[in-house]
Amino acid sequence: METLPFSASHSKQISRPKCFSTFTAFNSKAGLSRVFFVRTTHLNCSRRRNKLSVKNIASDQRQREQELNGSASNGASPVPIFSDSESIAASIKYHAEFTPSFAPDKFDLPKAYVATADSVRDSLIINWNATYEYYEKLNVKQAYYLSMEYLQGRALLNAIGNLELTGAYAEALRKLGHNLEDVSKQEQVAALGNGGLGRLASCFLDSLATLNYPAWGYGIRYRYGLFKQLITKNGQEEVAESWLEMGNPWEIPRNDVSYHVKFYGEVVTNPDGSKKWVGGENVTAVAYDVPIPGYKTKTTINLRLWSTKVAPEAIDLQSFNIGDHAKAYAALKNAEKICYILYPGDESKEGKILRLKQQYTLCSASLQDIIARFERRSGETVNWENLPEKVAVQMNDTHPTLCIPELIRILMDVKGLSWKEAWNITQRTVAYTNHTVLPEALEKWGFDLLQELLPRHVEIIGTIDEELIHTIIAEYGTEDHDLLQQKLKKLRILDNVKLPESVVALLVKPKKSLTVESVKKTEVKDEEDTLTEEEEEEEEEEEVEGESNNDDIMEEKDEMIFEPDPKLPRLVRMANLCVVGGSAVNGVAQIHSEIVKKEVFNDFYELWPEKFQNKTNGVTPRRWIRFSNPDLSNIINKWIGTEDWVLNTEKLMTLRKFADNEDLQSEWRQSKRRNKMKVASFLEEKTGYIVSPDAMFDVQIKRIHEYKRQLLNIMGIVYRYKKMKEMSPEERERSYVPRVCIFGGKAFATYVQAKRIVKFITDVGATVNRDPEIGDLLKVVFVPDYNVSVAEVLIPGSELSQHISTAGMEASGTSNMKFAMNGCLLIGTLDGANVEIRQEVGEENFFLFGARAEEIEGLRKERAEGKFVADPRFEELKAFVRSGVFGPYNYGELMGSLEGNEGYGRADYFLVGKDFPGYIECQEKVDEAYRDQKKWTRMSILNTAGSYKFSSDRTIHEYARDIWRIDPVLLP
Q1: Contact assessment for residue 92 and residue 176, using Cβ atoms and an 8 Å cutoff
Q2: Average pLDDT in the 372-387 region?
Q3: 557's torsion region: left (phi>0), alpha (psi -120 to 50) or beta?
Q4: In 529-568, which positions are buried (b, 16+ CB within 10 angstroms) versus exposed (e)?
Q5: pTM for this one?
Q6: What is the DSSP letter of 588?
Q7: The one catalytic residue among 131, 308, 814, 944
Q8: Does the N-terminal or the C-terminal CB of the chain have fewer CB atoms within 10 Å?
Q9: What is the three-state SS of 654-685?
Q10: Compositional bias (Acidic residues) spans (predicted)?
C-alpha cells in the first residue's frame, strides 16, 4: 500500500490502496483542495470491503494559483467534480460512509437517496460558489423574489437533469444495486407551499438560473408545512407534514447569517427628531440556503429560507428548575412557532398575530440581508441613491407588503436617511405582483393589531397614507366633496381611520367669521328698530377692537368632515400599500390585468396608468415536459430534430406541420398510453381503486375552492351517473365514453364549504366505483395529499383537464399550461390564462363553455332580483343528491349554497347552476371528439405545439426587461 501524509500539521498516516484513483474538489475561498481517494474498480463488491478513505491536504502554491486562475472570478469550469458513472458511484459510496445520516450496516433506499443527494450537492456547490463570486466581482444589479410559498417538488431528478447527469447517475446507482427512479422516490417533498403561487415561484427560480439572471429567492422554512391531507370516511383530515424528520440534504444551514426581528415595543423620538423602535420581543432569523441550478449552464442561484429561534439566555432556567417548564420555554416556543405552519388559521387574534409575524419575519430578515449585501458590495462609501440601481425587490402577492415600511424604517432609523430620500428609494426598488381579484385575498389587517405588533411600521404607513391623500387632493381638488370622499374611500391605505391634521386643515374651511359682540348686538338689533348715531359709532369701534381678539371669533365651519364610522373596524389595506409603494403593478394574465386596471385598482390606474403591466404566468418546460415526461420529450426531439425547444419553446410550433402525420400520431398515442399505465398503477397504490387505461383520463387537480368549481365538475359526474343508471347496458355503451375522473387538491383546514366538497367527491367515488352496473364506464378517484410530485405523475397521463372557474375570478392558473404542454386537451371558461391558451392552441382545440367575465355582475344581480330560473336537470340533480344515494352524510348545506337569491353561503355566488347546462352540453362534445382518436390525437399535438408561449422563461425575460431592469450574466 502507498502511504501519504494527512496534512502538514498532522502526523497521522492514511493508506491508499493502489486500486483507488483521486478527484479533487477545490475550495477557492479557503485555498484548499479536498482530495477524495475513491475505488474505481470492483464497485459491486461487498459494502464492508468498499471502505473509502478521505483526507485534506494543503496544495502547493503553484497548484493553488492554477486552481484560482480557473475559479469563478476568472472562468470557473462548468464541469462538475465527477461526470462519469464510476466516479459518481464512488462519490455516492463516500457520502454513504463519511456523511452519515443512517446506521452503517445497510445501504438501503433511504440511505442511497441521501448519499446520492449529497453527491449531487457537491457539484451544485461548485457552480453555486462560482456564480456568486462572479456576481460579487462584477457588482451586478440583482433581483430578489420574496414569496411566502415555494412548491419545489423533488429536487434530485431536477438537479441531475439540469446538470445533464441523469444517465450517469442512473448507471452509477445500477452498479450499486439500486434504481434511480426508486431512489428518487425516497425524497420527501419540501412542504413549503400550497398551490399555484408557490409553484410559480419555483418555476421562476428555475428560469432565472437557466437564463443566467442574477437573482435570489427568499422564503420561510416551514417545519410542518401546510398539512398532510388524509382522506377518511369523514372526508379530509389534516396532520402535520414530516418532511424534515429525516433531514433535508439540499439545504445548507448558514448559522453565521442571522438577523434580529422585533415585535411589539414602542417608538421613541430622539432629540434630533429621528425615531427609534425599542423594547418588545426579539427573535433571531437564521438562514438556510438551497442551491437552484440552471439548465445547461454554470449559473446556480440561491433560495434563502428563514427559520426562527431565540438566544439560549432567553430560556428561563430559574423557572425550569422550579418546575414551571411552560414559562421557561415560552420565549423559545414563541419564536419557533413562527416557522411551524404555512398559513395558520387566522380566525382568532392569536392566529392573526402569528400570520403577521410570519410575514414580517420574511420581510425584515430578507431586507436586512439585502441591505447587508448591498453595503458589502459598495465598499467603504455607500451611496444609498444607488440602491435601486443595484437591487430590485419583487413582492409575490400581498404577503410581503411589509417590505415597503420595513425598507423605509431601515433607511431612516438605521441608516439615517430623511423621509423624502427613503420614500423615493423605496418606490424605485419594490414592485408588486397581484394574483387575485377575490376581495378576501386582498389582505386587510386590523389597524390596532398592526399597531400593537409593529408600532413603528404603522407610523410609516400613516405617513405614506398622508402623502397619498395629498396626491388625491392635488388630482381631484376639494370642491366636490362627494367625489373626494369616494376617492379617499377607495384609495386610502388606512380604511376608516381619522384623517391626518395636515389634510383636515385643507378640507374644513370657515364659511364666515363673526365677533361675539357683533352676534350679541345682532340679536339685540332684532329687538330694536334703530340705533342712535353715537351707538353706531361705539359699535364700530368695538368691532375693530374685537377683530384683534381671536378668542372672540366664532367660525361657522363646513359640515363635510370625513369622520370615520365608529361602528366599522379600522383596517390597513395591504394591496393599496403595494400599489402606492411599488414601482410597478402587474397582473398575471391578459384578462386578469385588464380586470386589475378596470375594476380592482381602477382608481389607482387613473392616477398612475404607467405603473400597470401584464406578465402572463409561465411554467418551466424542464420540469413539466423534459423531466416529468421523458417519453413525450423524446418524440418531440425526434420530430422537431433538436432538443433546443427545452430552452426555446417557440420551436414547439414546428409540431403543427406534423399534426396529421399518422406515424407521429401513432407514437403520440402509444406514449400517452404508457403514461396512463403509470397513472393507473399510481392510483391503485394510493387509493386502492383499479382503473382501466382504455378509459379517458379526466383530471382536475388544484386547490379546492368554490370559485375553482370542483363542485360543478362533481355535479356533472353525478348527472352522468344518474343518466347511466336510467339506461340499459347497451344504451350506456352507445351513449358514453368510459371515463376515469381524477381529483386532487387540499381544502384549507378552516374552509368548511371546501371540505364539504371534498367529502362529496369521495362519497360519490365510493358509490360509483362499487356499482357493478357501471363498471369501467365511470370511475371517480380523489388522490390524497396532492403535491408537485403527484402532478408529475398525473399530468403526462391526462387526456382532458378541467379549468372551469367562474369567469373573471382566476387570475391566471398555471396547471392549465402544464396540461397543454403534455398534450392534454382543456375544458374551461374564458378565465385567466385559458383565454390566451385557447388563442394559441386554436379555438377548435379547446372545449369552451360558460358565462363571460363581463356578464358575471349582471347574472348575480339577476339572481338577487329573483329572476334566475334554474335548469330542471339541475334541480333534479340536487334532489338526487339529497336522497341519500351517496351515503348518510347530510348534504343539505352544500346543496343549499346553490339555492336562494341572497345571503352569505347562499344564492350560488359562483354560478354553478347558471353554467351547468352549458357544461354538460360541452362534455357531450368531449365524448364525441374522443371517439375519433385520430381527431383527438391531432388536437393533442396542437395543444403541445400551442403551449410554446407559456414558458416561465418568457415571463422572466419580461420581468427582467420591464420591471427589474437587470441583464443576464453569463459566467465565463
Answers
A1: yes
A2: 95
A3: beta
A4: eeeeeeeeeeeeeeeeebeeeeeeeeeeeeeeebeeeeee
A5: 0.88
A6: S
A7: 814
A8: N
A9: HHHHHCCCHHHHHHHHHHHHHHHHHHHHHHHH
A10: 525-553
- Cell numbers placing 17: 490502496
Q: Tell me: the pLDDT tens digits for 588-615?
A: 999 999 999 999 999 999 999 999 999 9
Task: State the Cα–Cα distance between residues 395 and 400, nearest whole angstrom.
Answer: 6
Beta-carbon neighbour count of residue 925 at 10 Å? 13
Query: What does the alpha-carbon distance between residue 817 and residue 203 come to, in Å, rounded to a whole number?
Result: 12
E strands present in 264-299: 266-269, 275-278, 281-293
The number of residues in the chain equals 972
C-alpha cell at 142: 440583482
The one-letter amino acid code at 50 reads: N
| Helix (H) or strand (E) segment spanning residue 800 | strand 800-803
Give the residues across from 286 on adjacent strands. Answer: 258, 307
Looking at 487, 708, 838, 949, which residue is catalytic?
708
Active site residue 708: yes
Q: Which of 818, 863, 878, 949 is catalytic?
A: 818
DSSP string, 234-247: TEEEEE---TTTT-
Check if 457 is active-site: no
pLDDT number for residue 351? 95
761 close to 743: Cβ distance less than 8 angstroms: yes
Backbone angles phi, psi at 562, to 5 degrees: 55, 45
Q: What is the DSSP string of 327-367?
A: HHTHHHHHHHGGGT-SS---SSHHHHHHHHHHHHHHHHHHH
Respond yes or no: is residue 814 known to be catalytic. yes
- Contact assessment for residue 947 and residue 841, using Cβ atoms and an 8 Å cutoff: yes
Euclidean distance between CA atoms 952 and 950, whole angstroms: 6
With 0-12 CB in 10 A as exposed, 13-18 as middle and 19+ as buried, what is 266? exposed
Q: Which of 592, 703, 755, 803 is catalytic?
A: 703
Contacts 24+ apart (CB under 8 A), 706-709: 706/753, 706/754, 706/757, 706/909, 706/910, 707/438, 707/805, 707/806, 707/809, 707/810, 707/910, 708/804, 708/805, 708/810, 709/804, 709/805, 709/806, 709/910, 709/912, 709/915
CB count in 10 Å sphere of residue 190 = 28
Cβ partners under 8 Å of residue 572, min gap 6: 444, 445, 446, 447, 450, 458, 461, 493, 494, 495
- For residue 501, what is its C-alpha cell? 391634521
- Report how far apart, in Å, the C-alpha atoms of 804 and of each of 542, 595, 696 are: 80, 18, 18
Active-site pick, 141, 492, 702, 720:
702
